[in-house]
Amino acid sequence: MKTTAADFIAKSTIKAADKEHRRKINFNIGKYDAAVVQGKQQFEDLHAVREKAKNLKWRAIDKLDYYLETFEKNISSRGAKVIWAENTEQALEEIGKICAARNCKTIVKSKSMVTEEIHLNNFLKENGIESVETDLGEYIQQLDGEPPYHIVTPAMHKSKEDVAKLFSEKLGTDPRATPEQMTLVARSILREKYVQAEIGVTGANFIIADIGAIAVTENEGNARLSSAWPKTHIVIVGIEKMIPSLNDLSLFLPLLATYGTGQRITVYNTIISGPRQENEPDGPEEMYVILLDNGRTNILANEKVRESLYCIRCGACLNVCPVYKNIGGHSYGSTYSGPIGSVITPQMKPLNEWKHLSYASSLCGACTEVCPVKIKIHELLLENRHESAEEGFSSYGERIAWKGWKQAMLHRKLMNTGTRKMKNWVVNTLVKGWKKHRSELEFPKKSFNQMWREKNHSG
After folding, report:
1. How far apart are CA 219 and CA 223, in angstroms?
2. CB distance 99 to 199 below 8 Å
3. What is d(CA 385, CA 61) in angstroms, rounded to the nearest whole number?
4. Any bridge partners for residue 234, and if so which?
5. Which residues pair with 99 in a beta bridge?
6. For residues 376 and 368, what is the distance between their CA atoms, to the nearest angstrom?
């Protein structure tokens, strides 16, 4: 069933009134905010760092075709197989072929938003393959039957008491278990799955063109185990994750860590440039890299919104967004939530079905202010709105209303037409939805135009 604007409004209305949800989110984001302040201190000139990062991503996206071909050539020379997937269906078809050829029964999977985008777990389940999330946050969400709530912290909306209750119901643990005790339980279960799995699946934080490698940054080590222990390693990554050179990681890894979690650098940073080589003692026997388009070239072709492909998925814009903090990640109904999700989802999917997300914003600009690669997110939200109106996706009533407003604003006499009571009635009665979440609007007794005339004694 397609997600509609009505679904979004219904879900967000319920969640916005949930005070307990708001308390948990404010608590967790408050801890994040405090950590980020400390993390930023590692940069002497943060403005220059962000500017350089944006320029590097501009270069990567501007010459994306060249860098993708360079990446394919270099990683293929070390034995990896590169697969180009135009959409979700092609990606899943290729994964299905790989699994069938190896008679795969169990897959271990590290945290990856792009696998959520193609609904990989559902596909594997339908084909009788167990897919186990090995990131603790993702594992919690999988146990609860929920998608990730946040780009970086999948279970941000859950308290430790919520997780303890969930573990008790699903795994039979003590309902009063501490986070440390629950982590040990999850570790014990997941270590067995690593041994059983025929295939490991990961995403990639960056694709490195000049050496033909992927970079994965994490805090738990589960991605390393997922990529190195099973005999087959499948990487699924969006084509926009490209950076030109290995040297660029010295900038992007600390930048992503600071804006993602407030750390100076994440605990595990891994560069993988192919399957196990002849002189190497461990690692997978084979490696596949699936380069996923799935609407990204639509964004690439649109010069006005192209810069949204610079996104490094740090989640900073979600953490600062007043709308996200009130309605939560699941209300959006899309893989990518928050401000950046509201920009890219309508571009990657049918605009007429997803345009409502670009209106779910106060346009305060906080998302733009915190973006580590200086994407003008709030301006891109306006561009989406403009495109939807230009393509005729607004209602007839809305178009007539704005034409009337335009004419009134351009002609002073029209603005002065009618009494104060009549204007109050028009806004509070005819303008749909005005009073649903607001008090009645009251026009002043005298307009600015009238006061100006009186002050200057003009006729």
Report:
1. 9
2. yes
3. 24
4. 201, 288
5. none
6. 5
What count of residues does the chain have?
Answer: 459
HEC readout, the chain: CCCCHHHHHHHHHHHHCCHHHHHHHHHHHHHHHHHHHHHHHHCCCHHHHHHHHHHHHHHHHHCHHHHHHHHHHHHHCCCCEEEEECCHHHHHHHHHHHHHHCCCCEEEECCCHHHHHCCHHHHHHHCCCEEEECCHHHHHHHHCCCCCCCCCCCCCCCCHHHHHHHHHHHHCCCCCCCHHHHHHHHHHHHHHHHHHCCEEEECCCEEECCCCEEEEEECCCHHHHHHHCCCEEEEEEEHHHEECCHHHHHHHHHHHHHHHHCCCCCCEEEEECCCCCCCCCCCCCEEEEEEECCCHHHHHHCCCCHHHHHCCCCCHHHHHCHHHHHHCCHHHCCCCCHHHHHHHHHHHCCHHHHHHHHHCCCCCCHHHHHCCCCCCHHHHHHHHHHHHHHCCCCCHHHHHHHHHHHHHHHCHHHHHCCCHHHHHHHHHHHCCCCCCCCCCCCCCCCCHHHHHHHHHCCC
Burial class (CB in 10 A: 0-12, 13-18, 19+), 370: buried
Distance separating alpha carbons of residues 270 and 191, to the nearest angstrom: 20
**Spatial contact of 245 and 212, defined as CB atoms under 8 Å apart:** no
User: Residue 337 has which token pair?
Assistant: 């939530």
Quick one: which of 198, 236, 212 has its CA closest to 95?
236
Whole-model pTM above 0.85? yes
The structure tokens 């979004």 sit at: 8
Q: What's the rounded Cα separation, in Å, for the pair 285 and 283?
A: 7
Q: What are the structural domains, with CATH classification, of the chain?
A: 43-294 (3.40.50.10420), 403-456 (no CATH)
Evaluate whether 171 touches 185 at the Cβ level (below 8 Å).
yes
Strands 286-292, 81-85: pairing is: parallel
The rounded average pLDDT for each run of 10 residues, N- to C-terminus, in the chain (459 residues) is: 77 94 94 95 96 98 98 98 98 98 97 96 97 97 96 95 97 95 96 96 98 97 95 98 98 98 96 94 95 97 97 97 96 96 96 94 96 98 95 83 85 81 83 76 85 80
